[in-house]
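User: I'm curious what two different proteins look like when written out as structure tokens. Can you demonstrate?

Assistant: Sure. I'll show them one after the other, since each token string lines up with its own sequence. Here's the first protein:
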Amino acid sequence: MKALTIWTKGDGLLSVLAPIGLAVAAGTALVIDLDPDGPSLRGAGSLAELVRSGPRRDDLQPQAAGPAVLANGGVEAEEAAPVVQALIRGWPFVVLRSPCDAGRFAPIVPVYPLLPGALFSSPDRFCVYQRTGFETDRAGDGIVLPCPRPGTIRSLLSGTLPVRSRWVRAWRSVWEHPWRS
């Protein structure tokens, strides 16, 4: 899979961390924020700017190894479709952060926090489960990620790569799964 759309169930912090974790696990990848109303991802530019001015050749391929983030900037996915498709063609891996449980440009990877009892809603499909520190074994069919360590969270939120993170390594299996559109 070269591009995946990631959606998280009801967790603001996880909706920021999950796409970045998936991109870091891929190596050189671009995170494109398709959510104009969600928590903002920090990036050097924005999808809205690329829609207004058109992408340059340098935008359409990586300029350095490692992950990059393209913030939303207030544009809807429909309006940005040609730019998003061009970016998917040019980058080795692309992670699309979606505000909804639908993958318009790439297969959807739903992410659910594992919560105890009535707080947990088990989906009826294969997904990614994020451990939260609450003991529960109610995961359905899917990939279960360990809790990220505080240092990993700080690194990702500050824009630096975590040195050794089992949480990031666990995201690699998400790229290997045959997700369907």
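Here's a second, unrelated protein for contrast:
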Amino acid sequence: MKRYSLLPLVLTISLGLTGCTAASAPAPADAPAEVASAETEENDAAEEAAEEAAEEDGVKDKLSKGNGDGKEEAEMEQFTIEDDSEAVDKSEKTATNEMTRGVDFGRSYTESDIEGYWQYDDFDSVYFALYDTGEYETYDSQTDELLTDGIFTIDGAEVTMTERGGASETILMIANLHTLIDDEGDVLSPYRPKFLSSSSDGSNARAGYEGDVVIEELDDGYEKIKTTSKGVFIKYPSFFNAAGGTGEYLWVDDGENGFLTARNVTDEYYDFAGSDEEFVRQVATKFLVSDFMDIYGDPANTADAKYKSGSGNWLGAITGNIWNDDVDIYVYTKVYLSPYSDGTFEAVLINGFYPYGSNEGRTNLEMCSIGGMR
């Protein structure tokens, strides 16, 4: 067995994207008409602000907060991208590092971090199933025959695997949550077995899709991954490489270094006292770079972080560029109020990642639809 090493990830970020407010100069004391006019405008502005606040409270009052029967899906929304990456001259782009300040690289892995199905990119005859219980199995990719099984433990960067009835061996992995690279440079990627079955209660029967995470094969060339515990679903083309659940979010992989993640942020939105723009900035700060790290590893730098105003059910978006020695990725966060037929909503955060300037990557992600689930 080979030796592997786990590269720590982790995520405390500051986007540093702040808004500006212009202050008005006071009216002269000897201009009563202007003062009256200013007071009228001020009163009008106060009334308008109160109406907006009431309207926002009304929206938040309609948040479902998961009060459903556990099986209801919200209306699907197509994921769209306002991509300006090709308009940027990379030779003139200035790295800002705004999104990676304060990142802590001291994380140790647990069994649940790497649970799931894995297969070597260059060796497709066997795949691995790693469970959050610390057990593992290997299967024949063509027949789905169980080949070996055993247990594994993780201590910092060391993974100790013990085959049942065999000796223990410690391996080291260089890893993020969506790619494992051994010490010989061979890459393992998430894998969805063709023989994956579901149990009688509808949940997936083996590793990698914990709890109630379920993948459905649809009739229109698409698949759907969904979960009530995480509160979201993603519909994606069946040619995508893999899909799964990690922590509090679902993710799909287009097989071309493009990823989409979705998480339910209804509770965070309900409890947030600021504006929608401030909320989008805050949750983007919290999740955008952390998801990048889960997928691509530690970031080296960032540039072109921008906020985009929302409309309709879209609260807003953050776009930018993050890269390291291995990848150069265009990143996109959108926050969406996902509607149900009864008039209630759930707040969903969607992060998109694809190679910088890749039209194919952008098109692949835009084929996906996302919604809340309760």
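A detail about the second structure: Confidence is low (pLDDT under 50) at residues 1-40, 198-209.
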